[in-house]
Design a protein that fits this description.
4 helices; two-stranded antiparallel sheet; 14 strands; 2 domains; eight-stranded mixed beta sheet; single chain; elongated; Glucose Oxidase, domain 1; alpha/beta; 235 residues
């Protein structure tokens, strides 16, 4: 789930392929070079920065078959954004409804339907470190529901996941023997998307930008990689 492996084929290897496929020698190619190509040997849909589809959370959402990444409207993924700053929160802390409300009020932004809400945890600084999945605060199921009730369908965070670190949720779920603790915000039974493993949210203003986060259209997939960018309005 975490490891990405790519096979790189450089221009010399490309020239050899052209020789084998078409009989065209390197002396007939510009600078003696062929094409450069790469092959993904291992690349999970949840590797790198990606967008989760509702199907990732459960097979059914609100009593209906959960939609997969290729079934979601593109309109969700190009929308005004607001950035809520929680980078001073400790690892494992919960970002709850009142926290989201206070942070939103501080931005002066009034949520509109389909706005994209980004949570800055600052844990993108740990991206690639072994303990990255165990770092960061997490958004509660209640806060997720509050955003959803206001028309938000895409929410993102610059940590490994939207929930609190899973080892903490697992320990609590086992200790209490209850459903609804582990992966609580994911399995809140709402149709929405999460962008996980964002970076550089510290370079954004709180408001005044549009988020473009189109996921690859992978048929039947629970998620897809995305190149997420913010388009800032002219001052």
């Amino acid at each position: 789930m975490f490891r990405t492996e790519i096979d790189y084929c450089d221009h010399a290897a490309g020239a050899a392929d052209i020789q084998a496929m078409f009989g065209v020698g390197s002396e007939l190619l510009r600078d003696g070079e062929g094409w450069a190509v790469e092959t993904f040997l291992r690349f999970g849909t949840h590797n790198s920065t990606h967008v989760d589809a509702p199907y990732h959370y459960n097979s059914r959402i609100a009593g209906r078959p959960a939609r997969r990444i290729d079934e979601l409207p593109l309109d969700w993924f190009f929308r005004p954004g607001v950035m809520l700053d929680f980078h001073e929160r400790e690892d494992g802390q919960t970002i709850d409804t009142d926290d989201v409300q206070s942070a939103l009020a501080a931005t002066g932004h009034e949520l509109a339907e389909l706005d994209i809400v980004l949570i800055r945890s600052g844990r993108d600084a740990a991206y690639g470190e072994l303990d990255y999945p165990a770092r960061g605060p997490g958004v509660s199921a209640e806060a997720t529901r509050w955003l959803h009730e206001r028309g938000v369908r895409v929410m993102g965070i610059d940590a490994w996941g939207w929930d609190r670190p899973l080892h903490l949720q697992a320990a609590e779920a086992i200790e209490r023997g209850e459903r609804g603790i582990f992966w609580a915000a994911h399995q809140v039974d709402l149709e929405y998307c999460q962008i996980e493993r964002l970076a550089n949210l510290d370079q954004l203003p709180a408001t005044g930008f549009t988020v473009a986060c189109f996921p690859l259209r992978l048929i039947g997939a629970s998620a897809a990689p995305a190149r997420v960018v913010a388009l800032l309005e002219d001052e």
